[in-house]
Design a protein that fits this description.
Helix 1 packs parallel to helix 10 and helix 1 packs parallel to helix 17. A hairpin with a 2-residue loop joins strand 21 and strand 22. The chain is of the alpha+beta class. The termini are close together. The strands form five sheets. Strands 7, 8, 15, 16, 17, 18, 19 and 20 form an eight-stranded mixed sheet that branches. It has a six-stranded mixed sheet with strand order 10-2-1-14-22-21, with helices on one face. It has three domains: 189 residues, FAD/NAD(P)-binding domain, CATH 3.50.50; 113 residues, no CATH class; 125 residues, no CATH class. The protein is built from 17 helices and 22 strands.
């Protein structure tokens, strides 16, 4: 039995810790904040619950490998209701609405009615979604055996050239396959962040197969269940405890030092941002070439952050698709000037997001490393003034589209790159790792540090795209090194 210290109680930290306990190791899990979850968190404001993460969760379908792990760790279970939304979103542009229905045949038929001239391109798009979705369904259901490279699986698909080409196309580039301005707008904005078109084929395909849904209650309740599982297995959890250093002697970590205590260990797994681990916790004594390369080429591998405003609205919003992408009068958010904003009303989870007839609503605009640097350059007063302006501009954009909401809106909170960075120590205030763009290649990191054999990194930064699935998979991969 090994003594393991896990740093960071986000998804990767919780999964690694629980799985290690299941293997009879001794685990101490240390988290700097007063609750578990990390980026996968939710908060209560004036008795109103706000979910800052889960708009869909990969692995909600029974009988696949990720679902099995969610159940093992307590995130999902037989008594947890899974909410299946009918669409991945609707996008409005110049009077037309383009909807990504879960039912792909319905979506394809509707798109063709909106733009008959795009019939061939529409059919090609939906076939790519079908093929990638079916492939992912087979992979996750463990029906594909052996060590087969992902690219070889993709090459086996019908129209594989079209799908492989999408790996080197941004969504904006791919949208030019269509004549319809509304379809172009929808494809360009169909997913948050900066990943390439293939990533959307992957996401939409998984969604269409029923494997990207929402556990009732979202992020807070899911991570609380995982915390309960961890404690029930005998794990030691320390909240509001900041790790200051991983102590090294004779090329091995022997302890983890916090502000108040020192914890002896045989192994360390750090699930926080790799740059924070390398620069702060390991005092710049170790380097990982991959992360140096990614950071040096960040313009080709942008990180994803957001400016996210949460509201409580005294109105029935069930006529607004969750989410809806709006074409708005351009506003400046951070360094970015944008004509697009996502509106997400949470009416679909009435037990948690509707209180006294008021519905929680999220307004979302993408941000990246440049926006973080912009906000970071402001003084405290400038930052306060600028974020207030942005919040007002986003609320006014909402009212401009839905005038009935005027006078019925209560502001709850906002999230921006600076707040995300302060809460999680993540580089550039990002909520997702380096993107897999048209200008970059897919990357994967095994979590090992050269010349430091008992310290490992895990989390969404270990692979392109990131998110909860990557955090889970990297944690499961790294714990195989613990003997």
């Amino acid at each position: 039995m090994a003594k393991v210290v896990v740093i960071g109680a986000g998804i990767a930290g919780l999964v690694a810790s629980i799985e290690l306990l299941n293997k009879n190791h001794e685990v101490t899990l240390i988290e700097k904040n007063n609750m578990v979850g990390g980026l996968c968190s939710g908060y209560f404001l004036n008795n109103t619950y706000v979910d800052c993460c889960l708009h869909w969760l990969m692995g909600t379908k029974e009988g696949n490998s990720i679902n099995d792990i969610w159940k093992e760790t307590g995130a999902l279970g037989e008594d947890i209701k899974i909410i299946s939304l009918p669409t991945l979103g609707s996008y409005e542009y110049q009077g037309a609405t383009i909807t990504f229905y879960r039912d792909l045949d319905k979506a394809e038929e509707e798109w063709k009615k909106i733009s008959p001239i795009d019939e061939k391109a529409i059919h090609k798009f939906f076939n790519a979604v079908r093929h990638v979705g079916s492939l992912m369904d087979l992979v996750l259901s463990k029906k594909i055996k052996g060590n087969i490279k992902a690219i070889d699986l993709i090459k086996s698909l019908p129209d594989s050239k079209h799908i492989i080409k999408s790996m080197k196309q941004s969504r904006e580039e791919y949208s030019k396959n269509f004549i319809s301005p509304a379809i172009q707008f929808a494809i360009k904005n169909c997913q948050t962040g900066y990943n390439n078109m293939f990533f959307f084929f992957d996401l939409y395909g998984i969604f269409s197969k029923g494997n990207a849904d929402i556990p009732e209650g979202g992020a807070f309740y899911m991570t609380q269940r995982m915390q309960e599982k961890f404690i029930s297995l005998g794990g030691k959890l320390l909240l509001s405890e900041t790790v200051k250093e991983i102590l090294i002697k004779d090329k091995l970590a022997y302890a983890v030092k916090t502000e108040n205590k020192t914890f002896d260990c045989d192994y360390v797994i750090s699930t926080v941002d790799p740059y924070y681990t390398l620069n702060e916790l390991l005092k710049k004594n170790y380097k990982i070439k991959l992360f140096n390369k990614l950071k040096d080429n960040i313009e080709s591998n942008p990180v994803s952050s957001c400016f996210n405003v949460f509201l409580s609205i005294n109105e029935d919003l069930s006529d607004i698709e969750a989410p809806t992408g709006l074409n708005i009068t351009p506003i400046r958010v951070g360094k970015l000037k944008t004509d697009f904003m996502i509106v997400r009303p949470y009416y679909y989870d009435q037990n948690h997001f509707i209180i006294n007839g008021k519905t929680v609503v999220s307004l979302f605009v993408d941000q990246n490393q440049d926006d973080y640097e912009y906000f970071n350059s402001l003084s405290k007063d400038e930052y306060k003034e600028e974020t207030s302006r942005i919040i007002n501009d986003m609320i006014n954009a909402l009212i401009s589209r839905y005038p009935k909401l005027k006078g019925k809106i209560e502001y709850l909170m906002s999230i921006d790159p600076i707040k995300i960075g302060n809460y999680t120590n993540t580089s550039y205030g990002s909520f997702q790792s380096f993107s897999f763009t048209n200008k970059s290649s897919f990357y994967s990191y095994n979590g090992k540090i050269k010349d430091l054999p008992n310290v490992f990194l895990a989390g969404q930064w270990c692979r392109s795209i990131g998110g909860t699935p990557t955090a889970l998979l990297s944690a499961c991969s790294v714990i195989k090194n613990i003997k």
